[in-house]
Design goal:
256 residues; alpha+beta; Immunoglobulin-like; 2 domains; eight-stranded mixed β-sheet; five-stranded mixed β-sheet; 4 helices; 15 strands; binds calcium ion
Length: 256
């Protein structure tokens, strides 16, 4: 789901969340094992975009989650927040609103679907784009933040089945941007193996990506095996790689 910056969705979020935070600020005690939010540390290249997955753990059922993420750099921009593959994907009331250029608040509430059962896994993924000629290498910290918008405080809290809000443990992360391109030599190392070798693992990776909700190729140029001008990874790339591997087809072209 793309970030929706529309005022309407922000208002809905404020209304829904007001009920949540009005009851209690997140000062409640998290019983038993402390729940957590883990922001990953990702590495990418200046010619690419970047993404930072966020994970969470809870040992009791939850009625709601709100997480506000921020970074402090003019060099990157939030493109979108995706719930694809997230533990929150089944919940109908969820969203991501970009509060400021550098801040996005993400929320999810269990309604008819029942409480969010205990577990650990993906909360969602923040996608970033970079300004042209970005300084490299650099690491930008992505952490949680508290922000006041229209007298409503956006922060990070979990809420239990009685709407008692409490603060999870937060592990901050970030994104490291290296210079140049991720693509080495020829295209086709879809699984980004450090040896840059093209083999059956790359075919498996492509099949998983296309048909099994597997992760996107870390380097889009390696994933675009056939070197199509749109730089898109699709079924043609899988066909190209199978032809090359098993049918004496032409080798993948060089990296751009
Ligand atoms: Ca390569
Ligand atoms: Ca490989
Ligand atoms: Ca292609």
């Amino acid at each position: 789901m793309r970030i929706n910056v529309k005022i309407l969705s922000l208002l809905i979020a404020i209304l829904v969340l007001a009920a949540f935070t009005a009851k209690s600020q997140p000062t409640g005690v998290d019983p038993s094992i402390r729940d957590s939010v883990i922001i990953s540390s990702a590495t990418t290249y200046s010619t690419n975009s970047g993404s930072v997955p966020v994970y969470f753990y809870n040992d009791e059922s939850l009625a709601g989650i709100e997480i506000t993420l921020a970074y402090n750099s003019p060099d990157i921009m939030i493109d979108s927040f995706s719930f694809v593959g997230s533990r929150l994907e089944p919940y109908s009331l969820k969203g991501a609103d970009q509060l400021t250029t550098n801040t996005v608040t993400v929320y999810s509430y269990a309604l008819d679907e029942g409480l969010m059962s205990s577990g650990s896994g993906l909360l969602g993924t923040v996608y970033f784009s970079f300004i042209p000629n970005i300084t490299t290498p650099q690491t930008i910290v992505v952490d949680t933040a508290t922000l006041l918008v229209s007298d409503r405080e956006f922060s990070t809290a979990f809420s239990d089945e009685n709407s008692n809000a409490f603060s999870p443990y937060i592990l901050s992360g970030g994104i490291t941007i290296l210079s140049g391109s991720c693509c080495l030599g020829d295209r086709g190392n879809v699984d980004n193996s450090p040896d840059d070798i093209v083999d059956i693992s790359d075919i498996v990776y492509l099949v998983n990506f296309m048909f099994n909700l597997g992760p996107t190729p870390a380097c889009p140029f390696e994933g675009n095996v056939d070197g199509s001008a749109d730089e898109i990874t699709d079924i043609s790339d899988l066909v190209f790689l199978v032809q090359y591997s098993f049918n004496s087809g032409p080798p993948p072209p060089s990296c751009p």
